[in-house]
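Incident log, structure service

09:12 report received: a user says their structure output differs between two submissions of the same chain.
09:20 pulled the input from the user's history:
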Amino acid sequence: MHSLTERKQQQASIPDDELLRQLVAGDKSAFVVLYDRYRQRLFTYCCRMMGDRELAKDALQESLLKAFQKAAMYEPGTNVAAWLFRMTRNTCIDMLRTLKVHESLDGLQIPAEEQTQDVMLQEVLTSEIEKLPEIYREAVVLRDVHGHSYEEIAQIVGTPVSTIKFRIFKARDTLRQRLAIYLEDIR
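09:34 re-ran on a clean worker, output below:
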């Protein structure tokens, strides 16, 4: 009989596709592994989309519940991360439409251990990202905060790669213009 630690180590090496297959076959512990792998990244994404930590928690919980319920609908061979992010994106958009909430990241705090001398610039950057139109904000957050490839973002958003590249270019260009005055002060 394997110890709990050994089982967790074994499950940690299982590919995401296989974990979803195991979940569909009835192994609920496979979902716990997926949850552990993606929870933080999805929560950060929800915070950026929802603009409120409590709403982000709700969106994350709803998204993960949907993923659990719809695991059988997952098409093997597709990117599991993109599938999860797309489901989370749709949940956030639905919640924003329902609640008619305007984005604000006031409740999102930078953890103390991550604060640097550039906290003010970080706050200004966060504020300017909030002001971007949703399609640009989403693209730049997925690319520059979460590190997704253009192809993954296109899959998550359901838009051609060329459109994603344009949105990221436009978002970065807008941010560059808006932050120019702050960047000059640093030099």
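09:41 both user submissions now match this output. Likely a transient worker issue. Closing.
09:42 reviewer note: The first helix runs from residue 4 to 12. Residues 101-110, 112-117 have pLDDT under 50 and may be disordered.
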